């Protein structure tokens, strides 16, 4: 698994399924030792580890609910204990809720913010304690932080917009350390959370210039690029990978 991340360590939150699993496997193929967190998909997480190890890589699955700050901190500590460092952090863990605004509860608000915003804040703060020059933080946001062609996404959009602001401001803080911070803004991607079949999927495809869903592998490839040396001048950016969603 020799590649541009040979000798480096990556932590991918929410790495058991979908986009997170694809990112974990891609970074491992690029040479990184990879730790991945999971909340409820233990078997799927360990399947990702087995696939990475079968291909000659090193991987670790860590149980951590992104909405629990103590568990997030422990996941960084477990990564460092196993692999000795953190060079790349991919904040992928998140949740989606589509529901009419008038029906949203404060508990739902608190949970969405805890997972989609506070979890990213805590993971970045902890990882940066172990990250040196050349480190990379990639936050997985959403194109819906900029364009929302359907109703019911207030909490999701709110949290993903907050993530965009966190990305830009954190890039300023850690730039003097030679660390970059960027966000990817995917459009519809075929995952368990957002399958490419059904009436809602048809609506999303119609909103795309390419008329299709993206794949987890396409998102993982963009993350891989942002960890490369030639991406070292890209920071504080929110980069769309959305098939021309809503244009």
Summarize the structure in words:
This protein is an alpha/beta fold and 247 residues long. The chain is built from seven helices and seven strands. The protein has helices at residues 18-29, 42-54, 69-83, 106-128, 154-174, 199-206, 216-226; strands at residues 9-12, 33-38, 59-63, 88-91, 136-140, 180-186, 238-241. The chain has a seven-stranded parallel beta sheet, sandwiched between helices. Helix 4 links the parallel strand 4 (88-91) and strand 5 (136-140). Helix 1 packs parallel to helix 2, helix 1 packs across helix 7 and helix 3 packs parallel to helix 4. The chain is globular.
What brief labels describe this structure?
single chain; 247 residues; alpha/beta
Outline the secondary-structure elements.
Layout: E1 9-12, H1 18-29, E2 33-38, H2 42-54, E3 59-63, H3 69-83, E4 88-91, H4 106-128, E5 136-140, H5 154-174, E6 180-186, H6 199-206, H7 216-226, E7 238-241
Parallel strand pairs: 1-2, 1-4, 2-3, 4-5, 5-6, 6-7
């Amino acid at each position: 698994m020799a590649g541009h991340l040979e000798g480096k360590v990556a932590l991918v939150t929410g790495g058991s399924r979908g986009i997170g699993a694809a990112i974990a496997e891609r970074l491992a193929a690029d040479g990184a030792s990879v730790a991945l967190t999971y909340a409820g998909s233990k078997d799927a997480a360990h399947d990702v580890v087995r696939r990475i190890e079968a291909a000659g890589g090193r991987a670790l699955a860590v149980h951590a609910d992104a909405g629990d700050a103590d568990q997030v901190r422990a996941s960084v500590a477990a990564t460092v204990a196993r692999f000795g460092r953190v060079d790349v952090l991919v904040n992928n863990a998140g949740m989606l809720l589509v529901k009419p605004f008038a029906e949203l509860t404060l508990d739902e608000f608190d949970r969405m913010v805890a997972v989609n915003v506070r979890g990213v804040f805590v993971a970045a703060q902890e990882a940066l304690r172990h990250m040196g020059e050349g480190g990379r933080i990639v936050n997985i946001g959403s194109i819906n932080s900029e364009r929302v062609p359907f109703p019911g996404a207030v909490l999701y959009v709110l949290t993903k917009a907050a993530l965009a602001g966190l990305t830009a401001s954190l890039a300023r803080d850690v730039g003097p350390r030679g660390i970059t911070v960027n966000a990817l803004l995917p459009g519809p991607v075929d995952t368990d959370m957002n399958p490419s079949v059904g009436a809602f999927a048809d609506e999303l495809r119609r909103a795309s210039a390419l008329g299709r869903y993206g794949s987890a592998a396409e998102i993982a490839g963009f993350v891989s690029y942002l960890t490369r040396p030639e991406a070292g001048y890209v920071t504080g950016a929110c980069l769309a990978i959305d098939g021309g969603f809503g244009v």
